[in-house]
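Q: Please design a sequence for this.
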């Protein structure tokens, strides 16, 4: 049976933090604020997959009150979620993510992100859809105050 899930996340951009998106570090004058590495792309993606298997959300599984997750790479969350899928006999069919960021330029890094995310999830990069857009200078994302991401995931669960 096919299941779909949706995910959405936002993190503020602040000085003095490194910028991690899609599991890789990008050169930028600011980074995302958060308990983990604050990889907003992965957080939206993780919520989409958890949604597809009806298993809560990222805050429930990896709470920001837990010291275990402080400063950790968000790829760790994806690897944990992959284990949850395996335990259920679930197959991740595909995921698709849209990142909304005014800067830096994401396009040159998309291929690398797809490879890294696919490895963490145990799927080939062709099952990882990844797009980036600006917010046309509108709103918090347009002013460069934060970065947002939305994601969907499709999972096949055993009958
Ligand atoms: Mg988050």
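A: Design:
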């Amino acid at each position: 049976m096919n299941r779909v899930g949706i995910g959405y996340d936002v993190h503020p951009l602040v000085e003095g933090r490194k910028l991690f998106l899609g599991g890789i570090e990008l050169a930028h004058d600011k980074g995302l604020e958060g308990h983990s590495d604050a990889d907003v792309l992965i957080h939206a993606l993780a919520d989409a997959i958890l949604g597809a298997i009806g298993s809560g959300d990222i805050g429930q599984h990896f709470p920001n009150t837990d010291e275990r997750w402080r400063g950790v790479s968000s790829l760790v969350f994806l690897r944990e979620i992959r284990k949850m899928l395996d335990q259920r006999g679930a197959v991740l069919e595909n995921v698709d993510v849209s990142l909304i960021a005014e800067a830096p330029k994401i396009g040159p890094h998309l291929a690398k992100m797809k490879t890294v995310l696919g490895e963490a999830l145990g799927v080939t990069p062709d099952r990882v859809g990844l797009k980036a857009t600006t917010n046309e200078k509108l709103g918090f994302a347009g002013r460069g105050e934060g970065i947002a991401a939305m994601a969907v995931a499709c999972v096949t669960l055993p009958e």
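Q: Thanks. Anything notable?
A: DSSP finds five helices and seven strands in the chain. Residues 9, 11, 34, 40, 43 surround magnesium ion (CB under 6 Å).
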